[in-house]
């Protein structure tokens, strides 16, 4: 069995550790001056070099032929030739004990460690304990480790590694010298992959390595693991962008852009057809949603003026995102970001994984039909050239004649058209409310669950003079929220969340209406209205085909 690349090419000295120069140089200078801590804490994302740095540090502390002197730029490097260095590289050094806290997390394991700590090193100068995923220790185990961390024997050094430092007891952190590892940038990962491929004598395209780097979440180990997978599947064929995309099951940016365009345009049928295609290709829906969130995040940052250097994008991708960002309003992007973030949690536990995204597509399609002028992107306005007034007139003129009969029905229609002349500070406040909408709903929940449910079916439209205008699509929902007690609860929660006094104004969408039936035909009209106004049923019929059958 061939050795995986991230083990085969694991850095063996400080100079080979890429992307963490600030940490490695600080450690080398401290070692050269003899300032050796009794406990270190290495924290940071997975695959960024924490355990590798811990092993190299262990080599330096026990190396028999250290390279470098105090006056050198990088004074302390292991020789990688002496018995101690070779044994550490092979994992056979008696005085280097590596403990996985995820599987040895109890107080009994820590007591056993404390009993063995008192024994001096067998062959080396220092006895070193590397405790990986230290945040997984139980509270009792962490407390048991405290005293040993505070006053260990002079020949014992602890190196704690974690991906979640916030879960570690503050008293443990305070007894360690802490180093925070950062994610690697795409150019750094590409450079590392180039070195590996050259040693493996494999041809490659630079675009292929960029694809791998962008899929590794800033981790060298993940990037090298993906590369190992590709090499095992490609049988040393040239590594191209197309090969990487096909064999790793990646989704092209243009594909993500199209499905986002369909969602924002309310094109439910196109979204659902694309989901079927993804499922047939074996692409997980959670992965798709994560990529859509990443895509929207980049669009949002570009609209906020963030430059290419901070986005970790190549020039070609940056131009693509720059073009797409000009087609949408910030509120459209933040609104869809919020919706996708919400359904991502539901998708992981849904019986049918595509259902939450299908429901979102249908919901947005309904909203588009209720208010075609709402949330219109610049792309739609350019292509269709439709004004809000034209859509409003068309909607009223094409309504069923029976429902509009004045002898039988009293009808109220409130058209939401309050988005003009919005101040810049009010627009910022609306964006802040959209971003904090989930926290707002959670704040309402303890007071009244039914109010929370009704608010979930509403949509923040605009803020004017510290008043949030909420759009509802059914009169019952609007009237329920307009109840004095309901308004008091909502306004208090919103004001507390934003740190300023806020008021609520409820509005109906274009199709929002209150219908009152009179006369002998009331039952027939009500039955007709039930079918006509069931927008979800209409949309599902349009998407999947079929007809409505009455029992």
Note down, in words, how this protein is organized.
There is one protein chain. This protein is α/β, with parallel strands linked by helices. 54% of the residues lie in helices and 10% in strands. The protein has four domains: 5-180, P-loop containing nucleotide triphosphate hydrolases (Rossmann fold), CATH 3.40.50.300; 186-248, Helicase, Ruva Protein, domain 3 (Orthogonal Bundle); 253-384, Up-down Bundle (Zinc Finger, Delta Prime, domain 3); 416-508, GMP Synthetase, Chain A, domain 3, CATH 3.30.300.180. The protein contains 28 helices and ten strands. The strands form three sheets. A five-stranded parallel beta sheet has the order 2-3-4-1-5, with helices on one face. The protein has a three-stranded mixed beta sheet with strand order 7-8-9. The longest helix is centred in the middle third of the chain and has 20 residues, at 330-349. The protein is globular, with a radius of gyration of 31 Å.
Primary descriptors:
54% helix, 4 domains, alpha/beta, Helicase, Ruva Protein, domain 3, Rossmann fold, EC 2.7.7.7, 551 residues, Zinc Finger, Delta Prime, domain 3, DNA_pol_III_sug/sutau_N, three-stranded mixed β-sheet, five-stranded parallel β-sheet, DNA-directed DNA polymerase, globular
List the helices and strands and how they pair.
Blueprint: H1 5-8, H2 21-32, E1 39-43, H3 50-62, H4 83-90, E2 96-100, H5 107-117, E3 127-132, H6 139-150, E4 156-162, H7 170-173, E5 177-180, H8 186-199, H9 206-214, H10 220-234, H11 241-248, H12 253-264, H13 268-280, H14 285-303, H15 308-311, H16 315-325, H17 330-349, H18 355-370, H19 378-384, H20 388-397, H21 401-404, E6 409-413, H22 424-435, H23 437-444, H24 449-456, E7 459-464, E8 467-472, H25 475-481, H26 484-498, E9 503-508, E10 513-517, H27 522-532, H28 535-544
Helix pairs in contact: 3-4, 5-6, 8-9, 9-11, 10-11, 12-14, 13-18, 14-16, 14-17, 17-18, 17-22, 18-28, 23-26
């Amino acid at each position: 069995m061939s050795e995986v690349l991230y083990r085969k090419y694991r850095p063996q000295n400080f100079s080979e550790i890429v992307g963490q120069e600030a940490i490695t140089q600080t450690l080398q200078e401290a070692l050269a001056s003899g300032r050796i801590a009794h406990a270190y804490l290495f924290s940071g994302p997975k695959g960024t070099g924490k355990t590798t740095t811990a092993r190299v540090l262990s080599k330096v502390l026990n190396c028999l032929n250290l390279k470098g002197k105090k006056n050198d730029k990088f004074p302390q490097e292991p020789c990688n030739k002496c018995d101690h260095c070779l044994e550490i590289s092979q994992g056979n050094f008696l005085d280097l004990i590596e403990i996985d806290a995820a599987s040895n997390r109890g107080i009994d394991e820590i007591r056993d460690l404390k009993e063995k700590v008192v024994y001096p090193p067998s062959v080396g100068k220092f006895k070193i304990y590397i405790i990986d995923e230290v945040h997984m220790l139980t509270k009792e185990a962490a407390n048991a480790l405290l005293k040993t961390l505070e006053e260990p024997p002079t020949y014992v050094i602890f190196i704690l590694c974690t991906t979640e430092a916030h879960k570690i007891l503050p008293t443990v952190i305070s007894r360690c010298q802490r180093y925070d590892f950062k994610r690697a940038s795409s150019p750094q990962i590409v450079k590392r992959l180039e070195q590996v491929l050259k040693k493996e004598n494999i041809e490659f395209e630079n675009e292929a390595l960029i694809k791998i780097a962008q899929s590794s979440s800033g981790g060298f180990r993940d990037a090298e693991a993906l590369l190992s997978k590709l090499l095992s599947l490609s049988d040393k064929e040239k590594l191209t962008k197309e090969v990487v995309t096909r064999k790793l099951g990646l989704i092209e940016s243009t594909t993500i852009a199209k499905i986002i365009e369909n969602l924002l345009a309310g094109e439910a049928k196109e979204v659902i057809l694309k989901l079927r295609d993804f499922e047939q290709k074996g692409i997980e829906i959670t992965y798709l949603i994560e990529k859509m969130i990443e895509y929207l995040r980049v669009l949002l940052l570009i609209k906020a003026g963030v430059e290419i250097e901070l986005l970790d994008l190549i020039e070609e991708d940056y131009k693509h995102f720059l073009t797409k960002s000009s087609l949408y309003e910030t509120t459209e992007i933040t609104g869809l970001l919020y919706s996708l973030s919400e359904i991502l949690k539901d998708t992981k536990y849904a019986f049918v994984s595509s259902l939450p995204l299908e429901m979102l597509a249908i919901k947005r399609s309904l909203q588009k039909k209720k208010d075609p002028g709402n949330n219109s992107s610049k792309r739609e306005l350019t292509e269709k050239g439709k004004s809000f007034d034209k859509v409003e007139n068309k909607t009223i003129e094409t309504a069923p004649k029976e429902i509009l009969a004045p002898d039988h029905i009293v009808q109220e229609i409130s058209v939401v058209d309050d988005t003009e002349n919005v101040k810049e500070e009010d627009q910022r406040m609306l964006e802040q409310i959209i971003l904090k909408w989930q926290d707002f709903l959670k704040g309402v929940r303890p007071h009244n669950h039914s109010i929370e449910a009704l608010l979930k079916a509403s949509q923040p439209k605009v803020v004017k003079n510290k008043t949030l205008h909420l759009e509802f699509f059914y009169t019952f929902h609007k009237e329920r929220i307009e109840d004095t007690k309901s308004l008091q609860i909502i306004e208090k929660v919103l004001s507390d969340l934003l740190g300023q006094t806020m008021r609520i104004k409820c509005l109906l969408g274009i199709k929002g209406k209150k219908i009152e039936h009179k006369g002998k035909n009331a039952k027939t009209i009500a039955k007709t209205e039930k079918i006509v106004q069931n927008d979800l049923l209409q949309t599902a019929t349009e998407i999947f085909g079929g007809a409505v059958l009455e029992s």
